[in-house]
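Appendix C reproduces, verbatim, an entry submitted by the partner laboratory led by Prof. M.T., so that reviewers can inspect both the input and the predicted structure.
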Amino acid sequence: MLQSYLEELRKTPLLEPKEERELWERSAQGDLEAHRKLMSSYQPLVFKIAFGFKLPEAETMELIQEGMVGLLEAAENYDYTRGVAFSLFASYRIKGSMVDYLRRSSGKGVVYLDSEISNGYTLSDALPSALASPTELAEQQLLREKVAQAMDRLPVKEQQVLQGMYLEDRTAQAVADAIDVSLGHVYRLQKQGVRRIRGMLSRFIHDFNKE
């Protein structure tokens, strides 16, 4: 599967600076086709960052899916008028999404913790200890309950996407097939669902961190 993605990406043409600027201008005005073209042209950046973690193919595919979400979030917050290259701006958000995924997955055996990232530095060196005190476990349980309550308030499609990707460890493509929507729509539902949950939990997290 990964090889087939790479073959498709090789067909992705590079954007000329003038063309890219025009696409950002159109995208800022709500042109969905311009937005789609921009995101397609930057998919190779997601793959490049994912390959840098040097993980097996299955985990690399998961990183790519997470990175695509980071790419969409970066585009949402990007201001092309400031003159900062989008590739530089997006790289931090893409890598952050991937690292967040690895942290979430570290206790479930999804990734290989002895995989080298660079110069002998392994993923296990970068992740916090999985050991937790009884107090920490109680706090984690409370957070899980609050998240579950928030998920119950989401639209059905967003619930299905978050349930499948975060609780059932299914790939985005598997979720898309299950609910009969496109892969791109799954990423949009994922982003919308996460944003809604963050909004619903923002006050709780603020009070929680003050205790």
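DSSP finds eleven helices and two strands in the chain. Additional entries are available on request from the coordinating office.
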